[in-house]
Amino acid sequence: MAEPGSNQTPETGAFFQRDRQWHPPAFTPSYKSSVLRSPQKALLSFDNTLSELTGPVFGHAMIRERDNDLIHNFARPGESAIGERIIVHGRVLDERGVGVPGALLEFWQANAGGRYRHKKDGYLAPLDPNFGGCGRTLTGEDGAYAFRTVRPGPYPWPNGPNDWRPAHIHFSVFGHGFAQRLITQMYFEGDPLIWRCPIVGGIRDKAAVEALIAALDMQSTIPMDALAYKFDIVLRGRRSTLFENRPEGN
Amino acid sequence: MAQSLDRPKESPSQTAGPYVHIGLTPNFCGIGGVYEDDLGSAMVNERTKGERIELRIRVLDGTGTPLKDALIEIWQADADGLYNSSAEMRGAADPNFFGWGRCPTDMETGLCSFETIKPGRVPFRDGRLMAPHITLWIVARGINLGLHTRLYFSDEEEANGEDPILARIEHRVRVSTLIAERQGDAYIFDIHLQGDKETVFFDS
Fold first, then answer.
1. In the prediction, which pLDDT does A245 show?
2. Is the dihedral of CA A185, A189, A191, A193 positive or negative?
3. More confident residue, B74 or A243
4. Which secondary structure element, helix H or strand E, spans residue A227, and what is its range?
5. Which alpha helices (H) appear in chain B, and where do they start and end?
6. Which of A203, A249, A159 is nearest to B90 (CA)?
7. Angstroms from B79 CA to nearest CA on chain A
8. Catalytic amino acids of A?
9. A96 and chain B: CB distance < 8 Å anywhere?
10. How close is the nearest chain B Cα to the Cα of A224, in Å?
């Protein structure tokens, strides 16, 4: 149901189809764990039903003040995480260029040395006692978001004999319909590891890779405090229902 | 030359990786004190309307080995077939049922368990009723783009027989990959990512 008092009719049109040539395919053998985890049969295609058009609505009540501050949200009182202090900000848009308000963003990352706070990560680089590595926020009316963190370090992983992930931050995004659900990774402008990474390399189109690289944004830095990177995220757009004939109630 | 359509492209997907828990279920992986609870860990309360059920789901790779680092999200209608969503135009859904849940697969057993309710039927685009179903979205290390499928119920044979999505599956032998088996109050559902028993995944 529309929010009480809102004069906007919620959009209910079907989402644009995904361009699966643009996304990485399921089977990308240079990224070894995709080999046994990729479906081999064709996907079943159909236009969205209500089950894909609808999606959960997350409210501001669930977000606490420090949820978007990874420098402090796990730190002991008066202390902060070690590393290059950065602000990451941008907008969540859809493929029509329209801002997506109220989108829940969740992000996670390694610490400045490339170590994750996870029992399965046995990398030699130490944990930072003041860094957890998770955060979340909701976009504003225009789709804008921001958070503060430390720049994550690259880390080695057991794929090829000497593979290193570029510095990256994982993003999970909810739009307005469950069909817009997306997880991706943000990379940093100028990182020479980006073009050597088998996970990045699953994306075939260079322009698509570039869409995941955040630009250094000097206008948004805080002098003597933090650098800034701008990262826009685009979710599936949706058709207008104006000219669609549907039985009453659908 | 025509005008450019000038549309931005969807951000390309990337794998959630093996440490997806840090971001999506931090309490589950021992990162306490940042969020009170892991989002999506409790779906029902004592006032939620409908039949309580448990879903026991596993995700298996091409060798039949359960994934121990996957994460599943489910999205479903309430007992009356209404979604708790701003795009739901047919009426107000049960205020005690959010409709969305999230569960990582157990790091030892690979099992994922949801306590939820059985959803009511939801109309298809032409008004025919779809069979009761739950939408699933699966991410993990090795999965480059989240996989979308549905769980239907073995004790809804008649409704399943008239479901417009199940009817679209050309190879009828594959329909059973979307049907969870009832055992008491639980439904058992194995998702096969690859191979002879491969689950039907959707592009919608």
1. 62
2. positive
3. B74
4. strand A227-230
5. 20-24, 157-161
6. A249
7. 14
8. 116, 155, 165, 168, 170
9. yes
10. 27
pLDDT at residue A4 in the model: 47
pLDDT above 90: percentage of residues in chain A: 88
Q: What is the CB-side half-sphere exposure of residue B86 using CA atoms within 13 A?
A: 17
Q: What share of chain A is helix, strand, coil (3-state, %, to 5)?
A: 10, 25, 60
pLDDT at B1: 85
Closest partner CB to A24 (pick from B12, B125, B133) = B12
Nearest residue on chain A to B136, alpha-carbon basis: A178
Supply the mean pLDDT for chain B.
97
Distance from CA of B192 to the nearest CA of A (A): 8
Of B22, B91, B165, the CB nearest to A133: B22
pLDDT of residue B109: 97
Q: Tokens 């008092």, residue?
A: A5
Mutate to test the interface with A, among B4, B9, B11, B97 (most CBs of A within 10 A): B11
* CA A109 and chain centroid, separation: 11
Q: Is the pLDDT at A125 greater than 60, yes or no?
A: yes
Interface ipTM: 0.96
**Which residues from A are below 8 Å from B199, CB to CB?**
39
Q: What does the pLDDT average to over A124-149?
A: 98
Structure token pair of residue A232: 């826009």
CB neighbours of A169 closer than 8 A, spacing ≥ 6? A88, A107, A108, A109, A149, A152, A185, A186
